[in-house]
Write a structure and sequence with these properties.
Helix content: 25-40%
Order of helices and strands: HHHH
CATH superfamily: Ribosomal protein S18
CATH topology: 30s Ribosomal Protein S18
Bound molecules: zinc ion
CATH class: Few Secondary Structures
Number of domains: 1
Number of helices: 4
CATH architecture: Irregular
């Protein structure tokens, strides 16, 4: 099991080519839109990592700050019990 470079395709989820924010320029990342931001948080209210949501680095950064802002404004939970 030395050459695991070729056989690790099983774990890789089929990822989107383009980030949904880059494709659809109309979508704005707004910290007040909690229902929209909730889609980018896990069931434990954690921010979904980039490789799972398929968002590009630039938009993931904006998303993360928006989610963090929404948490401070009590629109999103910090933890899910
Ligand atoms: Zn993007």
């Amino acid at each position: 099991m030395r050459d695991n470079n070729n056989n690790n395709k099983k774990n890789v989820v089929v990822r989107q080519r383009h980030c949904s924010f880059c494709v659809n320029k109309k979508i704005e990342i707004d910290y007040k839109d909690s229902t929209f931001l909730r889609r980018f948080t896990s069931s434990f209210a954690k921010i979904v990592p980039r490789h799972r949501s398929g968002v590009c680095a630039k938009h993931q950064r904006e998303l993360a700050t928006a989610i963090k802002r929404a948490r401070v404004m009590a629109l999103l939970p910090f933890i899910q019990r």
